Amino acid sequence: MIRVVIADDQTMVRASFRLLLEQDERLHVVGEASTGGEAVSVARRELPDVVLMDVQMPQMDGIEATRLICGSSLTPRTRVIMLTTFDLDEYVFAALEAGASGFLLKHGHPDELLNGIPLVAGGDSLLAPNLTRRLIEEFVARRNVSPSPAAPRRLDGITDREEEVLRLIALGLTNGEMAQRLNLSMPTIKSHVGKILNKLGARDRAQLVIAAYESGLIQPQHRGRPPSTDRARG
Length: 234
Prior knowledge:
Helices cover 47% and strands 12% of the residues. With 234 residues, it is of the alpha/beta class. The chain has a five-stranded parallel beta sheet with strand order 2-1-3-4-5, with helices on both faces. α2 runs parallel beside α3 and α3 runs parallel beside α4. It starts with a strand and ends in a 19-residue tail after the last helix. The relative contact order is 0.13.
């Protein structure tokens, strides 16, 4: 059972999401919040697996609430999916920097939400792999990051095989595609991904992609505005 908190300042929106989620036997809504501050408090009290977080809320917006949840030792396993009414913009990049694991459009298909929550709870990012790569490239570019030509100390402890897996993650390959490319079993790939997450202190694959670009392991190529992220795949 995946524990979920719904954070949105509109009562009807929260009620609609709760009604939808409670129809899925995998999901259990353990709390609601109407402000960012409430979202942080509820997350710390209920320790949910996933928080559905609206971007714009009173008193404290969803970006700051995400930063407090994802950066706190009080909620080490809680992941955040941002709910937006728009495609890529400054809010999305800020949410990514704050630690969000995915993005969903409020007017998207219900199946995207129902299938996306388990993906994020399991450590995946809620973006198609190719969109993840293009989004992170734009994110890194906007932060004016100057990647090091050699892997810096933040990648210390990563083995050659793990570095290879990290590079493929950053290029957008799924676990299955990496297993085929490297001629390894799926359990072995999952083990490598888990070890990389632990060694880099990353919460999910989105942060692994950021680490790969910021370390210089992958050099950004894209400089234009990325396409819409309203299609989700882990």
